Amino acid sequence: MNCYECARPNPAVAVCHSCGAGLCRDHVRVRGEELRETVGPGPSQPVRGRRMLCGVCADAPGAPEGSSSLDGGGVLDEGQG
Question: What string of pLDDT tens digits covers the 81 residues of the chain?
């Protein structure tokens, strides 16, 4: 599968969680999010998760906000969402 956003054939490394488009490292946006994991009886435990999105879905109104984002190139910027 190739990246949907690239003009040239470029292998996809992720799939957009919202629309299903294939994305290369330059076009994928990763949002960090807190998930809840239930382990037996009692309160659930927070667990770090991530959601891959394309630029269109990440910028859409109501898109999930996260504590971190990865906007291609493999550089994780902590504290930005």
Answer: 999 999 889 999 999 999 999 999 999 999 888 877 777 888 888 888 888 999 999 998 877 665 344 444 443 333 333
- Which H or E run includes 59? helix 55-59
CA torsion, ordered 8, 74, 64, 24, to nearest 10 deg: 20
Residue with tokens 């959601």: 51
Distances (CA, A) of 5 to 16, 20, 30, 53: 11, 12, 16, 12
Asked whether 22 and 13 are in contact (CB, 8 A), the reply is no
Phi-psi region of 42 (alpha: psi -120 to 50; beta: other; left: phi over 0): left
Residue 64 CB coordination number (10 Å) = 14
Q: Measured between alpha carbons, how far is 25 from 42 in angstroms, rounded to an integer? A: 40
Q: What is the pTM of this model?
A: 0.65
